[in-house]
Amino acid sequence: MRSSPLSVALALAAAAGPAWGAEEWTPAGPGYAWSFPRDHRAHAGYRNEWWYVTGIVESAEEPARRLAYQVTFFRIGLAPGPRAAGSSWAATDVVMGHAAIADLGSGEHRFSEVVYRAVPLLAGFGEEPDPVLVWSRGPPGTEGRWELALAGDGFLLSMEDRASGMALRLALSPERAPLLEGPGGLSRKSSKEGAASLYYSVTRLATSGAVTLGGSTCRVRGESWMDREFGSSQLASDQSGWDWFALRLSDGRDLMLYVLRGRDGAPDFQSGTLADAGGHPTYLSGGDFRVRVTRRWKSPGTGADYPAGWEVEVPGAGLSLRVDPASADQENRGGRGPYYWEGAVRVAGPRGERAGEGFVELTGYGAGNRPPI
Questions:
Q1: Pair type for strands 196-213 and 109-117
Q2: Residues 188-225: pLDDT tens digits?
Q3: What is the 3-state secondary structure (H, E, C) of 96-148?
């Protein structure tokens, strides 16, 4: 069995030398001066960073297909400053890409992953005026690149894995301004100092383009959500993972929730953001919302036991929601590295009425599967 990109990336980081201490990386802290489109680009000096795009689209052709997708680019820092010259492999970063496409009607789900040092011809980050934000080569056997690029005030997103019979090329047009997730964009992940990220989302992106799954390509339209986080220590040492919710509600509100878990699996720290239809946020602490698991699902591929249904309540906002997976098996399984569930969900109101849609991410489930950040 081949190693996963995540395990390879961590091995590269461990072998990069010298052993950089956390104090040498820039910590996520209050008072960050946000500026767009600058902050869509990479942030050198922070240890971890990701561009996370998820969406639900529908084919234009008959019979209509409802598809969900995820494309993530991770920047994993090897060194907080420039390396000495002399080697084309003297990289300061690794670029890792994850991509998944699911047919929500048939239940088909495919996943692809890549990892490369950020060096010429393999992977990297564009600098102004280059529109490319982050890119990498595709997996072996696939020509071309995986790429996220600026296009006016929106984005172009593309990936392909010929061996897996999956690809997409999408135009993403923002319908709302970037939303800071936490006061000043500082998203705390623990009551302990240092466990935090700088975090914003573009919650509603009108989406159009083409998606290929199982070798069959269709034109699609729908809506996407982009998450951007960067920092140097997101999880506390005694935390095992998180449940993350990104929900676009039918009444125009957007809801992001983080439930982080301790080593015993119990909720350890909670935070969230509820934005109104105008994009104005209300920041939520642990006492402002409740998430109760209603069902579970055991992966046939990894044996991990995941939540698979939730009741979500935000009493102060009059929200009582039922959240259910749009398809059961949306687990991303690569090689021997950490696996996780990342999938489209349906949102219903208290009387069962359609109340929205979105994505949920579940990490740290399964033996020895703590996200290494």
A1: unpaired
A2: 999 888 899 999 999 999 999 999 999 899 999 999 99
A3: EEEEEEEECCCCCEEEEEEEEECCCCCEECCCCCCCEEEEEECCCCCCCEEEE
Strands 340-348 and 216-233, by their bridges, are unpaired
Q: What's the number of domains the chain is made of? A: 1
C-alpha pair distances (Å), 106 with each of 48, 111, 153, 257, 367: 35, 16, 35, 29, 29
Q: Among candidates 84, 111, 80, 117, which has minimal Cα distance to 98? A: 111
Q: Which domain holds residue 353?
A: 5-15+41-362
CA distance 31 to 44: 18
Comparing CA positions, the residue from 61, 359, 40, 58 lying closest to residue 206 is 58
Count the Cβ atoms, other than its own, within 10 Å of residue 50: 18
Residue ranges in the chain modelled with pLDDT below 50: 1-22
Instruction: Provide the token pair at 37.
Output: 């489109």
* CATH code, domain with 314: 2.40.370.10
Tokens of 125: 């980050």
**For residue 57, is it within any domain?**
yes
> Is the alpha carbon torsion for 349, 352, 354, 356 positive or negative?
positive
Task: Dig out the tokens for 238 from the structure.
Answer: 């005694």
**Which pair of tokens denotes residue 251?**
């009444």
